[in-house]
Every structure is written in C-alpha cells, then in structure tokens.
Amino acid sequence: MYVKKFDLICNRQDCPNGKLTKDKFVDLYKMFFAWGQPEKFCEHVFRTFDMDGNGYIDFKEFLLALAITSEGSMQERLKWAFRMYDINGDGHIEKPEMTLIVQALYEMLGPAVKNLPVDTPEQRTQVIFDKMDSNKDGCLTLKEFLNGCLEDPTLAVLLNVNPMEQ
Predict the structure, then answer these.
(1) In degrees rounded to 5, what are phi and psi of residue 111?
(2) Which runs of consecutive H residues, i.e. helices, occur in 10-69?
(3) CATH class of domain segment(s) 2-165
(4) Nearest-angstrom CA–CA distance, 74 and 52
(5) Would you say 78 and 147 are in contact if contact means Cβ atoms under 8 Å apart?
(6) pLDDT tens digits along 55-96
(7) What is the mean pLDDT of residues 96-102?
(8) Of 133, 79, 115, 121, whose CA–CA distance to 96 is shortest?
(9) Long-range contacts: 109-118, Cβ < 8 Å, 24+?
(10) pLDDT tens profile 49-60
(11) Mean pLDDT of the chain
C-alpha cells in the first residue's frame, strides 16, 4: 500500500532517483488545494517529513511519516504535529511559530477560511494558547500540547494536521 502511494506521489518521471524534492511536494499540494496557496504550509510539512534535513524526502522518510500520520496513535500523530509547529526545533512552541503555521493553513485553505469561527491567525493562536498554556509562560511544551489536545477534542482535530489526508 505505501509503495503504491509513494509511486503515485514520486513517479519515475518526476522523481527519477526516488527522492521527493520540496518543489515536487508543493506541486502535489497544489493539486489538492488549487483554490488556495499551499506553498508556506508545504514548507512546514516538508521540513517535518525530511527528518535528516537533506532537502528531499526519501522512501524511508515517506514510510515513517505516512505510518505516523495515517496509522499512528493519537499521541504519535500529535507528537508529529508538535514537531511541525515547533519551527525552530527548541522543544517549545512559541506564539509566533504557531501563528506562522496557522497563517500558512489559512492561505492553503483559501476561501474555506471564511467558515472558521475565528477571523485571524493571531486570534486563532491566542485561543489555542489560552486553552493549552497551563503555566501561562507564552510557550507550549510537548506535555502542554499533548494534554491540551487530549483534554479538548476540538483542539486535537484542529492541531492534528494529517497532510496525507488533506
């Protein structure tokens, strides 16, 4: 099953060496989100998939990411999402990091954002931090992130981004 998905995404013509580049990754998202602008969001997802930071997603990274995002436990998927939101990789999510991801999601969703109950990425980030930042220090630890999502199913759905099912 995973081999077929990888072959569909990274065919021999587009990825002759079996390595999915960031540009090809963006092109794939554009097929699914033609009405929005997925480029910025793709950068964050790609960074999280490219676990060794070499600039492409190989088959092993693809398998691991797909297994976690589609078949992993809720906690595994949330840990993956945490890594995506933690842009600088310091083990904490600060408001500016989350705002960048939320902004990228809004841009990718395009007109569909009009249906969201909160108007701006900054407002959405503030709502999330109000619910999750238990010690009110302005950043989220993995523990706060997991606890917040597990205690509030709405937050879990909102933050547990599964790029392979978008």
Answers:
(1) -60, -20
(2) 22-32, 39-49, 59-66
(3) mainly alpha
(4) 24
(5) no
(6) 998 888 887 887 887 777 888 888 988 999 999 999 999 999
(7) 94
(8) 121
(9) 109/33, 109/36, 110/33, 110/35, 110/36, 110/37, 111/35, 111/36, 112/35, 112/36
(10) 998 999 998 888
(11) 81
pTM over 0.85: no
Label residues 62-95 b or e (16+ Cβ within 10 Å = b): bebbbebbeebeeeebbebbbbbbbbeeeebbbb
Give me the pLDDT at residue 25, please. Answer: 84
pLDDT score, position 134: 94
Q: CA triplet 150, 154, 155: central angle to 5 degrees?
A: 60
**Mean pLDDT computed over 86-110:** 92
Please, are residues 61 and 49 in contact by the beta-carbon 8 Å criterion?
yes
Tokens of 25: 């990754």
Q: Which of 125, 128, 119 is nearest to 152 (CA)?
A: 128
Domain regions of the chain by residue span: 2-165
DSSP characters over 73-102: -HHHHHHHHHHHH-TT-SSEEEHHHHHHHH
Q: Are 156 and 104 a contacting pair, CB within 8 Å?
A: no
pLDDT of residue 164: 41
